[in-house]
Amino acid sequence: MLSYNVDLEGKTVLITGAAGFIGSNLVKRLFHDVSNIRVIGIDSITDYYDVNIKYERLKEIASLNRDWTFVCASIADKDTVERFFSENKISVVVNLAAQAGVRYSITNPDAYIQSNLIGFYNILEACRHHEVEHLIYASSSSVYGSNKKIPYSTDDKVDNPVSLYAATKKSNELMAHAYSKLYNIPSTGLRFFTVYGPAGRPDMAYFGFTNKLVKGETIKIFNYGNCKRDFTYVDDIVEGVVRIMQHAPEKQNGEDGLPIPPYKVYNIGNNSPENLLDFVTILQEELIAAKVLPEDYDFEAHKELVPMQPGDVPVTYADTTPLERDFGFKPNTPLRDGLRAFAEWYAKYYGNNEKNKI
């Protein structure tokens, strides 16, 4: 196991995408774990999905009464990013801001170029000109495209993305590598695998399925139910991020005297892909148990098996061996436990918030 070389106590951490699903949970976890930490959050709060959920996440963070600063802005705004770094001594950056979604990238490509490429470039430039101990950034399992070899390893060749979203995430890894090599910036990329949980993203399948079932609509199950996904509970993702934040890849020189890029990439996934039909069955059972759906709900009448969507892949499966070796951690939340937590949150959130009724 690697030893930690970044102490978060007394440090200022910048988290982009702080109103997002992973970002907001990470902020809460850092405040729980570290007694003397300052967190700056930035998020553009786009209406890609229901902004009420984003504001609810921010409200939870604010209620902790910790050293927390939030600014509504886009990382694609270079002047704003530079001001953050100039006015604050930022030690660690966790870049989670990105335009997410595979299918949305087909109809709205501009959003991906702005946030995922220009925005990430601005973060890299700021890290270059200010002394940052560690840059951590979100990549995605989408970079593996239609690779046939499973489980997916970070040693695999990933030069054939099947969506613009995946291409931007692969580009992030390449850009980070170049900056690590040129400017000796310690950077770690994290390939997340299908993250789910309470207060998650409504564009994700489990959330979208639930919304449709509640309204009595039919859900479409792609690839005729033959998709497999490595569903990863959000708390497991955050656990991995917090551990990785505390170990920056070491700076060292090669035989030529030039820096070896202090650069790493890890998968964070459950290492246990689930068939989509099994996933939906468990979701239905937990929604009934949480009284989101009635006990006699006719599930068969509300599902439709359809072909694969453009940009999608049939299976995602994470090889987490390096994560286990270096950080002694492997995501392990059972799917039923995670979906139960989501169903209970959904019942409470939409049951108690009339303004949020679907």
Task: Walk me through the structure.
Residues 13-269 form the NAD-dependent epimerase/dehydratase domain. Keywords: NAD. This protein has a domain at 12-199 and 232-271 and 316-333: Rossmann fold. Helix content is 39%, strand content 16%. It contains eleven helices and 15 strands. The chain has helices at residues 21-33, 51-62, 78-87, 104-107, 109-129, 164-183, 205-214, 234-245, 276-289, 321-327, 335-352, and strands spanning 12-16, 38-43, 68-72, 92-95, 134-140, 187-192, 195-196, 219-221, 228-229, 232-233, 252-253, 259-260, 263-268, 274-275, 303-305. Helix 1 links the parallel strand 1 (12-16) and strand 2. The longest helix is centred in the N-terminal third of the chain and has 21 residues, at 109-129. The chain is globular, with a radius of gyration of 20 Å. Residues 353-358 have low confidence and may be disordered.
Radius of gyration over all CA atoms, rounded: 20 Å
What structural class results from the helix and strand content? Answer: alpha/beta
DSSP, total strands: 15
Helical content, roughly? 25-40%
The span between the termini is: 47 Å
As a percent range, the share of strand residues is: 15-25%
CATH class of the domain at 12-199 and 232-271 and 316-333: Alpha Beta
What do the pLDDT scores average to? Answer: 93
Please provide the ordered H/E string of secondary-structure elements: EHEHEHEHHEHEEHEEEHEEEEHEHH
Q: CATH superfamily of the domain at 12-199 and 232-271 and 316-333, called what?
A: NAD(P)-binding Rossmann-like Domain
Major β-sheet profile: 7 strands, parallel
**CATH domain topology of the domain at 12-199 and 232-271 and 316-333:** Rossmann fold
